[in-house]
Design brief:
This protein is mainly alpha-helical and 164 residues long. 77% of the residues lie in helices and 0% in strands. It has one domain. It contains 4 helices and no strands. The longest helix is centred in the C-terminal third of the chain and has 35 residues. The protein is elongated, with a radius of gyration of 20 Å. It starts with 15 loop residues before the first helix and ends with a helix.
Length: 164
């Protein structure tokens, strides 16, 4: 075994290059899971204005709809960007940079997707109930996404300590 191979503190017997290749593959696989969700939401948002009742919505509902559409658009852009970056930059043989930038884009994309999904639930709840139920449901949905997608893994990272 050469000096570049070994455990590297990651519990695997792989070189740095092998680890980066694995990390990129795992990231792209994770994006394959997130993308259908954002695509379905985006498609739903694109057809909503063509619904016969759309002209009857309130100014609040119209604003929530538009913000949600923009959030879904931004989420799509961030979640698809790593694929574009990899395709454009792969010959530069700097997968490490691609993985780190793609990871940041994926996290931002997931945060935007959580916001867009919360907005969609808020819009639908407001159309159905138009009351304080909207604030309760939207807050619960935001807490659900924030806790499951971000809070729980961040807590685990903090609990495991530096370098663990």
């Amino acid at each position: 075994m050469d000096a570049t191979a070994g455990d590297s503190g990651h519990g695997r017997d792989e070189t740095e290059k092998e680890r980066i290749d694995r990390n990129l593959g795992e990231l792209l696989q994770e994006l394959r899971v997130a993308l259908p969700g954002v695509q379905v939401l985006f498609a739903f948002l694109l057809v909503v204005p063509f619904n016969q009742r759309f002209p009857e919505i309130t100014t609040f509902q119209r604003t929530i709809y538009f913000i949600t559409l923009l959030l879904a658009t931004a989420a799509s852009a961030c979640l698809i960007a790593p694929t574009a970056h990899h395709r454009i930059e792969f010959r530069a043989e700097d997968k490490r940079r691609i993985v780190f930038s793609a990871t940041k884009l994926a996290i931002v994309g997931l945060a935007l997707l959580a916001c867009a999904m919360t907005g969609a639930v808020m819009l639908i709840t407001d159309v159905l109930y138009q009351s304080t139920t909207v604030a309760i449901v939207a807050s619960a949905v935001a807490l659900l996404f924030g806790g499951l997608w971000f809070g729980w893994p961040i807590k685990r990272l903090l609990d495991s300590g530096p370098g663990a």
